[in-house]
Design goal:
Elements: H1 2-28, E1 30-31, E2 40-45, E3 48-57, E4 60-63, E5 73-77, H2 87-90, E6 91-98, E7 112-116, E8 141-146, E9 161-168, H3 170-178, E10 188-193, E11 208-211, E12 214-221, E13 233-238, H4 243-252
Antiparallel strand pairs: 1-9, 2-3, 2-5, 3-4, 4-7, 5-6, 6-7, 8-9, 8-11, 9-10, 10-13, 11-12, 12-13
């Protein structure tokens, strides 16, 4: 009896360790090296991180429309560590250009352009990301990054994290979400979450879904803010469906 009990206890402990290691690795992600993802932006309210964003030109950052928290919005560029922010060179006040058809994340058009108060000096710390040339293919390998929570009901982090995710076909994603009475529109992309145990969390909203070096999507929403082991795919705004709107604003340099 004793050897059998010992074997059972050993198997139980080993199983728990494996589960905890998996959860820790995926939820926390990995630190982004200082020389990579130089387009990442921290969208802040009253100088505190609220959302992610990404630089697409010398004077425009893209983020999610639901990241509009009223006045006192600013953008930080040029650092992956939010404890190392030089307000005089890294912080920019902004003018908000929210998509005119946005109502709430689940109905689409969850996109907002932020016009910076001055042009960014492009250098070895700040570079824009390219826009997509076409819609992303199903099952493509992509990456999402942010300073958001590393677990459900957690707190934001100081150092930028990243995690790799795969595109979920929209028809499969729709079927899963419709079982929870949410109908996904045609202007979204699904990636991560569900059975993959990889994805984004609170505070990552507005950040880019990067596929083949281009900003294919914008972090929009997940299921009831469940970040540890989400049972539905994460949902992103499809950048390819908003290129005309983006280019019109960035070309005219005003909303």
């Amino acid at each position: 009896m004793m050897p059998a009990l010992q074997n059972l206890m050993f198997f139980y402990v080993l199983t728990c360790l494996r589960q905890n290691a998996l959860g820790s690795e995926i939820i926390n992600g990995k630190d982004v090296p200082a020389k990579l993802m130089l387009y990442m932006a921290s969208v802040q309210h009253n100088n505190r991180h609220r959302c992610g964003g990404f630089l697409v030109s010398e004077d425009f950052v893209v983020t999610a429309a639901h990241c509009d928290h009223g006045d006192a919005l600013s953008v930080v560029l040029g650092t992956h560590n939010l404890k190392n922010v030089d307000d005089s060179t890294m912080r920019y006040s902004v003018t908000k250009c929210k998509h005119p058809d946005y109502k709430k994340p689940a109905t689409g058009n969850d996109i907002m352009l932020l016009k910076l108060s001055k042009k960014v000096q492009l250098n070895n710390r700040v570079q824009p990301i390219q826009l997509p040339n076409s819609a992303i293919k199903d099952k493509a390998k992509c990456r999402v990054a942010g300073w958001g929570f590393t677990k459900t009901r957690g707190t934001t982090v100081s150092v930028l994290k990243k995690v790799d995710v795969s595109i979920v076909p929209l028809k499969d994603c729709r079927r899963k979400w419709e079982s929870h009475r949410v109908h996904l529109v045609n202007t979204v992309i699904c990636a991560g979450g569900s059975d993959k145990n990889k994805g984004f969390c609170n505070g990552d909203s507005g950040g880019p879904l990067v596929c083949s070096g281009a900003a294919a999507g914008i972090v929009s929403f997940n299921y009831r803010n469940n970040c540890d082991y989400p049972n539905l795919p994460n949902v992103y705004t499809d950048m390819s469906k908003h290129l005309v709107w983006i280019k019109n604003i960035t070309r005219q340099r005003h909303c």
